[in-house]
Design brief:
With 117 residues, this protein is mainly beta. 12% of the residues lie in helices and 38% in strands. It is built from 2 helices and 8 strands; from the N terminus they run αββββββββα. It is globular.
Length: 117
């Protein structure tokens, strides 16, 4: 098992994906990532009246099916309240330990043009 063989076929800039089905998410920060790395949350299903909250920003957003949310998970406390219906969230994120293990560069804060060290 050579991690570099996997890197050759991995089709995403994210090195981790979680699937969250029909559950609320307590408030948390993504402590195993880096503040410069953004998470992407995609929610799908047959439900209504869901919200995602970022209390440190004073923000509560509609989180209906098809919503995509992008933010730095380690910086902002975030959570999703329970809702009625069937909901699936695909959370795309990065773990700094995997970057270290694979000995690949890590990106800094987003800039234009994008650059990695």
């Amino acid at each position: 098992d050579n991690i570099h063989d996997c890197l050759a076929i991995w089709g995403s800039v994210f090195n981790a994906i979680s699937v969250i089905s029909n559950r609320s998410t307590p408030f948390h920060r993504d402590s195993k990532s880096r503040p410069q790395w953004y998470d992407i949350l995609l929610t799908l299903g047959s439900y209504q009246d869901a919200t995602i909250e970022l209390p440190g920003l004073g923000v509560q957003l509609s989180y209906n099916p098809g919503t995509v949310v992008l933010f730095p998970g380690p910086l902002f406390l975030h959570g999703v309240a329970p809702c009625d219906g069937d909901r699936v969230c695909f959370a795309f994120y990065m773990r700094k330990s995997l970057h270290l293990r694979a000995n690949v560069g890590t990106c800094t804060w987003p800039t234009w043009p994008l650059s990695c060290i």
